[in-house]
Backbone:
C-alpha cells in the first residue's frame, strides 16, 4: 500500500506564489497513493478563490473515505487537515492539539479497513515551537481517543515542523515508535525549491515499511512550498503492535 503526506500550502506555489490547485492534484496523482494525508487545506478562503479544497480533492480522487479537519479560522474561510483513504474507516476521530494561546493545530485519527487488515493512521500538523511540539506529541499519544486505535499497527505522518529532529529522541521513543524518515538528510522537504529542512516525517509501530522517499520532481518543486513524502508499507496481521513503555 502507498501513502502520500503533503503540506499543500493552500495550493499556492512556493516560488511563484500562484494559486493553482491543479498543480497539487497532478503531483498527488502521479504517485497513485492509496492514502492521502494533507495539511494546510483551505475552505472558502479568499486567497484560494473561495474553493472548498477538501471537497474538491475528495471528489477528484474518488476514494472510499475522507474527513476534513478545520483548525484555523480566517476573516473569510478557514483551513486545516484532510485525510483520504482508498478503503473505509473502521473508526475516526479528530483531536485538538492547541497549546494555550498558540496557533490552533490538530490531528486526524482513523482506523482503516485495508485489505491487509486494520491499521491506525494519524495525520497532523505540529506547531512552530519545540516545547509546543513535544507537548502535542505527548498529548496525542496519551489521549484516550488515540488509545482506542493504538492496539493496531500505527502510522503517524504530517508536517512536524521539527527542524532538529528532537521528537524521535523524546515521546516517540518512550511509546515504542520508530522513525521511518531517517537518515534525515534524505528526507529534506522544505522549502520545496531548495529543500533544507526535514519537516515532513513519519513514525510507525507494528508495520512493515518497504520504501520511503521525498518526491523531488520539477512539478512538486513548483506546486507548494513543501515536497511530498511517499511511503510504501504493509500491515502484518500476525505481528501485533508493540506496547508502549
Residues:
Amino acid at each position: 500500500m502507498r501513502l502520500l503526506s503533503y503540506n499543500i500550502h493552500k495550493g499556492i506555489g512556493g516560488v511563484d506564489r500562484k494559486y493553482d490547485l491543479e498543480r497539487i492534484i497532478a503531483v498527488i496523482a502521479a504517485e497513485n497513493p492509496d492514502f492521502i494525508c494533507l495539511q494546510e487545506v483551505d475552505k472558502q478562503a479568499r486567497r484560494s478563490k473561495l474553493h472548498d479544497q477538501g471537497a474538491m480533492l475528495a471528489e477528484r480522487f474518488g476514494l472510499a473515505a475522507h474527513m476534513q479537519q478545520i483548525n484555523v479560522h480566517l476573516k473569510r474561510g478557514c483551513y486545516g487537515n484532510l485525510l483520504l483513504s482508498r478503503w473505509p474507516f473502521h473508526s475516526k476521530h479528530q483531536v485538538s492539539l492547541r497549546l494555550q494561546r498558540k496557533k490552533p493545530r490538530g490531528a486526524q485519527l482513523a482506523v482503516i479497513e485495508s485489505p491487509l487488515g486494520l491499521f491506525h493512521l494519524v495525520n497532523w500538523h505540529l506547531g512552530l515551537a519545540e516545547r509546543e511540539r513535544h507537548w502535542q506529541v505527548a498529548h496525542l499519544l496519551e489521549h484516550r481517543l488515540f488509545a482506542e486505535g493504538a492496539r493496531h499497527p500505527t502510522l503517524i505522518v504530517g508536517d512536524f515542523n521539527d527542524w532538529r529532529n528532537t521528537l524521535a529522541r523524546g515521546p516517540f521513543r518512550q511509546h515504542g515508535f520508530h522513525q521511518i524518515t531517517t537518515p534525515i538528510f534524505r528526507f529534506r522537504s522544505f522549502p520545496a525549491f531548495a529543500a533544507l529542512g526535514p519537516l515532513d516525517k513519519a513514525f510507525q509501530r507494528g508495520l512493515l515499511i518497504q520504501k520511503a522517499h521525498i518526491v523531488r520532481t520539477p512539478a512538486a518543486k513548483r506546486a507548494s512550498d513543501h515536497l511530498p513524502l511517499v511511503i510504501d508499507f504493509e500491515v502484518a496481521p500476525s505481528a501485533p503492535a508493540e506496547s508502549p513503555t
Observations:
- Helices lie at 21-31, 53-61, 130-141, 144-149, 171-174, 218-223.
- Residues 201 and 242 are 20 Å apart (CA to CA).
- The chain has one domain: 2-235.
- The first strand starts at residue 2 and ends at 7.
